[in-house]
Amino acid sequence: MEYSDRISLKPETLLGLQTSYRFNSAFSATVQGIVRTQRSADQDLINWAYFSYQPGDNLQLKVGRLQTPFFALSDVLDVGYAYPWISAPQQIYKSWLFPTYHGVDLAWGHASDNIDASIETYLGHYSGTHDTNFGTTEFDVKVFGGLIAHLNIDDLTLRMSHHHGQVNLNKAELNQLQAALENGGYTKTAKALGQKHWIDLEEVAITYETIDYFLRAEWSMINPRQGYLIKDIHSYYLSAGYNIHPLTFYTTFAQSHVRYQSYANEVPISDSELYQAVSTLKSRTQDNLTTWTFGTRWDVHPQIALKAEVTLLDGKPEENAFFDSIQNDFSRNANLYKISLEWVF
């Protein structure tokens, strides 16, 4: 989670700049860069760089480096001013999924007096790293895409999406282990450790927001067809808030359920080297976590917001529960306190 038991500005402090240039009424170019005090391997300095073609009000085509539209807040995830929390619920928005991709995005929409509907589809590729139970592993998503549907009816917003892609892991040690298992005749175990497979992501979000209060919910399911090395993740959150301008009070409940598929246990203990290697793989970490978050947002100025929140973390013993560094006597229960200043200019 990149937080610690000390006061720190590192986890989420950032500065983002975006610029656009319009060539004519239909063509434009956009570049966005983000400087972070703490940057992970999949977070580049330039996260958006694309050309856009919009011949009218209903159709838009984008080509280049784009934000991956997995979730409801994907486009504004780095703009904390756009949502009530200091950071979006970890269980959904801190999964291993990649934040950007190279490809194309096509969106069509139609609006009337009180109904706004749109369909979006995209196709692209991505290369990066992922922390599996076999360590940090390079992976290539040679082709993936998705379909997203939006429906706005007065104060109600619905979003449904489906995403599908082919993932190729690239871990030399796994290739060597797989070859050794095949040579030893343990074909079922070797087949289970294949590094090429398909992944599906399903997502549903609903928001009801008025001047006085808001209700938000989002659910996602990440289903790797080969779940022995990559986690199968079910996550959701429920959030409610009440506005007494300029203050907003909110609470959020979130959960994640993580599991790996099991595979054949055909390596005998007498084959000590292979048995130890397979046993290490099977001792896979889990990230099941339940949280309650209570917070307040103060809109000091139309472009400035102050926020303060506390999150109660409830993980299970002997699981990672989204913690990166765990002491032997740590119960996986903790309180996380955060304050933020967010400014849009």
UniProtKB/TrEMBL annotation:
Entries under InterPro entries matching the protein: Porin_dom_sf
Could you name the domain of life of the organism this protein comes from?
Bacteria
What name does this protein carry? Porin
Please tell me the species this chain comes from: Vibrio gazogenes DSM 21264 = NBRC 103151
